[in-house]
Request: fold
Amino acid sequence: MEGDILAPRLDRRYSVNDRVMYGSRPSDYQANYHRWEDENNDGESPSTVFSPMSYGYGNAPPYVEETNGTAAGHTRYCLVASKQMVGLFLMVWARREIKSDIRNLKVSCVGRGLMGYLGNKGSISVSMLLHQTSFCFVCSHLTSGHKDGDEHRRNSDVMEILRKTRFPMVYGQYERSAETVLEHDRIVWLGDLNYRIALSYRAVKALVEMRDWKALLEKDQLRSEQRGGRVFPGWNEGRIYFPPTYKYSNNSDKYAGEDMNQKEKKRTPAWCDRILWYGRGLSQLSYVRGESRFSDHRPVYSMFSAEVESINHSRIQKMSSSSSQLDIEELLPYSYGYTDINPYGYTDLNFY
Reply:
């Protein structure tokens, strides 16, 4: 019953935004909620941590596309969690048939804005367990700026996010939950990373018109910092075959500064918006950009297939209740590859 479901618990002391949603149910702080003690937080930056949840999640909002074969009023995907921190907003959705296999759902926020504390810059991270495989989704907005040396401030943001993001420890029957971002099996990091291209406006515009992505990527700050081992070591990013996503004039396909009649700041085009991943068992199927004009950025989205490990509980139960002999291989976790293409053109596990 809906009334029997416990609400997620929030430690208000480190909160930069006091509202989180699990499924369709908002969670607001109440004084009688149990508080998690965050021993790892040093007080330098807010870190909002929510308690784990092992039950199912609410229904998706009505605007999710309905498909053939679903009952009236039911949707193909359901909302697992959503969280907003100032201008950052992260949602995680799951196919309805696997929602009951998602456990240990937790959220953590780190502010890196004004004075290194406020939430106008920073990250939202969602941790969850699907069968026996842990996933972490990180949405971030890093320090802006196009001057020489600003990339080092963005590197610092990444290191602080990795250091300060903490999830409450949970011990289950078959698993130990991840406490940090890098302890997860599969990680996807996305958002406005704000890394620029170390070339002049005129040089970048000329290379964009020639669609010479290789020459532009050689001067891309994120790629350069990765090659130097200064940020995101061991992380992966797909090949980029689309124009820079920033900065566009309002409601236009022109980069800011192209139209001399408009009074707007000229910004050198750059791939500010990126999607990275870390860990084995993730295969990227696509990496493209959208053409929405509601922002001075163009959105990017990606599709992955993911391997998920699952324990065969029926075989474990059989072994414990009888004297029959089983080969050791039968007791080891095996992989579910949610990679079958359905008529709608999506994999069973989609990350955007």
